[in-house]
Amino acid sequence: MTTITANASVAEPLTLPCGVTVKNRFYKSAMNEALAGRDCAPSEAHARLYREWAHGGAGVLVTGNVMVDHTQLGEPGNVAGEDERDLAMLRRWAAAGTENGAHCWMQINHPGRQSPITINPHPLAPSAGKIDGEYGRFFAEPTELTRDQIRGIIRRFANTARIAKKAGFTGVEIHAAHGYLINQFLSPLDNRRTDEYGGSLANRARFLFDVFEAVREAVGPEFPIAVKLNSSDVPIAVKVNERDDAPGGFNEEESIWVMKQLEARGVDLIDISGGTYAKPVIQTNDGAAEDRRRGVYFTDFARRIKGELTVPVALTGGFRNAADMNRALNDNITQMIGIARPFALMPDLTNRIIRDGWQGSVDLPRITTGITSLDKTFGGVLVISWFELQMHRIAQDRRPAPHIGGMRALLFAVKQHGPAALAPRRRKGRQ
Question: I want to staple 417 with a disulfide (CB 3.0 to 4.6 A). Which of 127, 207, 359, 421 is the partner?
Answer without folding.
Answer: 421
